[in-house]
Amino acid sequence: MPPRSDADSEFDAMLSAAALAASPLPPSSSPGPEGGNINSRKSNKNVLGFAKQYATHKRLHPSQVAEVEAFAADPIATCQIKLFATLLGVGNCVDTIRTAAPDFKLSSSTDKNLHQLGIGILVSPLIGAYKGSLPTKHLLNIVKKKCFDLPSGIELISSDWAVVKTHAEYYSTQGRAAFKKLLKASIADKDPKKNPNIFILGQRFVKDTDSTLTTPLCARIALMRKYFLLHPGDLFWDELDGRLAWMQQNSGGDTNKQTKMFKVVLDDDRNKHGNLADYSMPDDSVIDEWQSKVDIVVGAPA
After folding, report:
1. Which of 127, 285, 116 is closest to 217 using CA atoms?
2. Integer Cα distance of 59 and 243 in angstroms
3. Ramachandran region of residue 212, left (φ > 0), alpha (ψ -120 to 50) or beta?
4. What percent of the residues of the chain are helix, what percent strand, and what percent coil, each to the nearest 5?
5. Contact at 8 Å (CB) between 257 and 251?
6. Burial bucket for residue 187 (CB in 10 Å: 0-12, 13-18, 19+)
7. Three-state DSSP state, 1
8. How do residues 110-163 score in pLDDT, each as one tens digit?
9. What is the DSSP code (8-state) at residue 195?
10. Most buried residue, 37, 66, 150, 186, by CB count within 10 Å?
11. Residues near 145 by Cβ (< 8 Å), separated by ≥ 6?
12. Low-confidence residues of the chain, pLDDT below 70?
């Protein structure tokens, strides 16, 4: 249908006024020549004329104009039945369209973004737990804000949002699996000094991602290596998350106290693995804008 103009609106108002004027009047005490009510017949004629004129103005097909005229001539009960039946028919059409629609799929660009963000969340020095629903929750919160090329309000469509959630959960799981492989390789030699130092290990964690290696991240990875040595099996992430919770509780949520705790862990790793003379720690004065935005979401109250 063509866009409506001010002239269309004015014409709508004029025709509506005509319809109002054509409303049935009280029966007259003076019958017409054939015994009928003159005012009633005149009113019906005006309504039918308005129905045809308005339907034509709305550019309906000739057959539809005829239907409108017939509808206008029907008794009120008949009109109500027709309206209800038509409404049910429209509902059936909508259901058919929904059924015929193809299954929702993520675009390759959005899928790539989910992968990158999944790693970005896991390498955030602010993450409170690596296992469970928390990493996926952070990822989905970013998706809701950024949307990427997803339809607006997709989280309100359960079946489509389930596809996004499944991908988010997958990349969180894959990220943890990749980290465990890196940790296992980082303790392969029985002589710790021959194993990769924390800087080299950290670079492997952020390789092929949009993240940048920082000293706080190195401290997190040092804690991971410490706990992988203690719990290399299936309970690794549970034990690590338990230690993070312990540090949070015993620091009273004080960021400075937690930083000192992580520094102790980092210094211990640097002294045990690799050669201190072979590297220097990252320059944290260089701010990674992309990772900073991820950290804001991760550090927000859950």
Report:
1. 127
2. 72
3. beta
4. 70, 0, 30
5. yes
6. middle
7. coil
8. 999 999 999 999 999 999 999 999 999 999 999 998 888 898 889 998 999 999
9. S
10. 186
11. 297
12. 1-43, 98-101, 285, 302
Q: Which residue in 124, 176, 150 sits closest to 297, CA to CA? A: 124
Domain coordinates in residue numbering, the chain? 11-24+36-84, 108-299
What is the number of alpha carbons within 13 Å of residue 10 lying toward its C-beta?
3
Residue 271 one-letter amino acid: N
User: What pLDDT digit, counting tens, does each position of 127-138 carry?
Assistant: 999 999 999 999
- What is the b/e burial string over 103-138, where b = at least 16 CB atoms within 10 angstroms of the residue's CB? eeebeeebbebbbbbbbbbbbbbbbbbbeeebbbeb
What does pTM read for this prediction? 0.67
Q: What is the dihedral of CA 59, 62, 66, 71, to 10 degrees?
A: -30
User: Which spans in the chain are helix H?
Assistant: 6-21, 38-57, 62-73, 76-100, 108-122, 134-146, 158-185, 198-206, 215-230, 236-250, 255-272, 289-299
Provide the residue type at 260 as one letter: K
Tally the residues of the chain. Answer: 302
Q: Is 194 left (phi over 0), alpha (psi -120 to 50) or beta?
A: alpha
Tokens of 64: 């539809």
Neighbouring residues of 164: CB distance < 8 A, sequence distance ≥ 6: 106, 114, 140, 143, 150, 154, 155
Measured CA to CA in angstroms, residue 10 lies from 4, 17, 27, 68, 72 at distances of 11, 11, 32, 21, 23
Distance (Å, rounded) from C-alpha 101 to C-alpha 208?
36
Q: Which amino acid is at 63?
A: S
Q: Which residues contact 74 (CB under 8 A, 6 or more apart)?
A: 82
Contact 212, 206 (CB under 8 A): yes
